[in-house]
């Protein structure tokens, strides 16, 4: 499916139900999902209405970052894309033990590191790579790691 801003997503339910929430994402696990959208207000209204999310807003200077919540827990982030020509997209984050070595490995395997590893205060160290088919994935070494 796609939301009204064009970001593709899919819904599923595993045969054994959803995995339990954990306080710390295991290394190699999906740590976060973030929507970079062409219209943050339209996307926010869609996900709140469609899936029952609530949100917290964080002022990030020129933009607002929305944390989507469900069942009292943060589930994803949503923000206006900084590139007005970019297509709306979901960006998944994988927890890794060493962000810098993950970036080097992605490049060695033919991927392109589009956002070099850098610190996000109180969050951790993140980077973003695009694989050989053009799919983007972010990786994060959480501050707690």
Quickly name the level 1 CATH class of the largest domain: Alpha Beta
In the CATH hierarchy, the architecture of the largest domain is Roll
Q: Tell me the CATH topology of the largest domain.
A: 2,3-Dihydroxybiphenyl 1,2-Dioxygenase, domain 1
Structural class: alpha+beta
How are the strands ordered across the major sheet? Answer: 2-3-4-1-5-8-7-6
Number of H/I helices? 2
Strand content range: 35-45%
Number of E strands: 8
In angstroms, what separates the terminal alpha carbons? 35 Å
Q: Would you identify the CATH H-level superfamily of the largest domain?
A: 2,3-Dihydroxybiphenyl 1,2-Dioxygenase, domain 1
SSE series: EHEEEEHEEE
Query: What form results from the Cα inertia axes?
Result: globular
What's the gyration radius in Å?
A: 16 Å
Helix content: 10-25%
Overall pLDDT:
93
Note poorly predicted spans: none
How can the largest sheet be summarized?
A: 8 strands, mixed
Structure description:
This protein has 145 residues and is of the alpha+beta class. The protein has two domains: 1-7 and 29-91, 2,3-Dihydroxybiphenyl 1,2-Dioxygenase, domain 1 (Roll), CATH 3.10.180.10; 96-145, 2,3-Dihydroxybiphenyl 1,2-Dioxygenase, domain 1 (Roll), CATH 3.10.180. 15% of the residues lie in helices and 41% in strands. It has helices spanning 40-51, 99-108; strands at residues 30-37, 54-59, 64-70, 73-80, 89-95, 112-120, 124-130, 136-142. An eight-stranded mixed β-sheet has the order 2-3-4-1-5-8-7-6, with helices on one face. The protein starts with 29 loop residues before the first strand and ends with a strand. 20% of the residues are buried. The model has no long low-confidence stretch (mean pLDDT 93).
């Amino acid at each position: 499916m796609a939301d009204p801003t064009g970001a593709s997503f899919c819904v599923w339910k595993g045969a054994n139900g959803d995995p339990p929430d954990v306080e710390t994402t295991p290394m190699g696990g999906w740590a976060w999902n973030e929507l970079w959208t062409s219209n943050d207000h339209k996307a926010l209204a869609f996900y709140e209405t469609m899936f029952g999310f609530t949100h917290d807003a964080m002022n990030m200077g020129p933009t607002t970052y929305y944390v989507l919540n469900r069942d009292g827990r943060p589930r994803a982030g949503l923000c206006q894309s900084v590139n007005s020509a970019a297509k709306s997209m979901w960006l998944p984050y994988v927890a890794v033990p060493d962000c810098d070595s993950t970036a080097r490995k992605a490049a060695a395997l033919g991927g392109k590191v589009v956002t070099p590893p850098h610190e996000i205060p109180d969050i951790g160290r993140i980077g973003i790579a695009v694989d050989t088919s053009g799919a983007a994935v972010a990786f994060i070494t959480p501050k707690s790691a």
